[in-house]
Amino acid sequence: MGGDLSVISLIAEASLLVQLVMLCLVLISIYSWTIIFKKRAELAQAKRDADEFEDKFWSGNELNKLYEEISAKPHASRGMEGIFEVGFKEFVRLKKTSSDSNYVLDGSQRVMRIALAREIDQLEVSLPFLATAGSTSPYIGLFGTVWGIMNSFRALGNVQQATLAMVAPGIAEALIATAMGLFAAIPAVIAYNRYSHEVERLINRYDTFLEEFSSILQRQHG
To answer: Membrane-spanning residues where (predicted)?
Structure first.
């Protein structure tokens, strides 16, 4: 092993397995950052949409007009708006066929719960990867470190007099794998914790709206 301890040279001189570990961690880090930026924009948009819809819903507009405005949009409704659309549509449909208020309200709530479940699934997309990256990346890096150090000490067995200069490059290249594992894990853990909290708050908002809207429909049918 040479005496150059620059990071690039250490990576270039690392064993194939350690290099593969480093490549794996780089790919995990790149994909994690892609998810982090995408999820940040997605959750920010979801919060803006929820705020905008709540302003419209509680402004005193008639539900029929609000439904017509939403259903006229060319794109499918999402979030709180989507829950309202499917719930009101089902409410109007069932109201025409049945005078049983419990049946009508149960049917409306059922489709809104299904819509809410879809929204939850969409909001939680990619979060499991961040959790996995945060929990496994340090161990992947540690595996590369252990392997690199093991190879360094095996090489020392072939010389009569071992010196620090001989073992330092091997240990240094091995420790890079641990550093890369932490570099991949720390942002993923922070993002997962933050986004999980934001998703939970959004879900609570959706669920609260669902209950409030159900109460309004109950009064209308009562």
So the answer is: 16-37, 127-150, 170-192
Question: In Å, what is the CA distance from 106 to each residue of 99, 103, 213, 220?
Answer: 13, 5, 13, 14
The residue behind tokens 């190879």 is: 151
Q: How far is it, in rounded angstroms, from Cα 207 to Cα 221?
A: 21
The Cα-based distances of 181 to 31, 134, 139, 173 in angstroms read 14, 9, 7, 13
User: Cβ distance 77 to 70 under 8 Å?
Assistant: yes
Secondary structure letter of residue 59 according to DSSP:
T
Task: Indicate the pTM of the whole model.
Answer: 0.81
Amino acid at 105: L
pLDDT digits (tens, 9 = 90+) for 148-191: 888 777 766 666 665 666 666 677 777 888 999 999 999 999 99
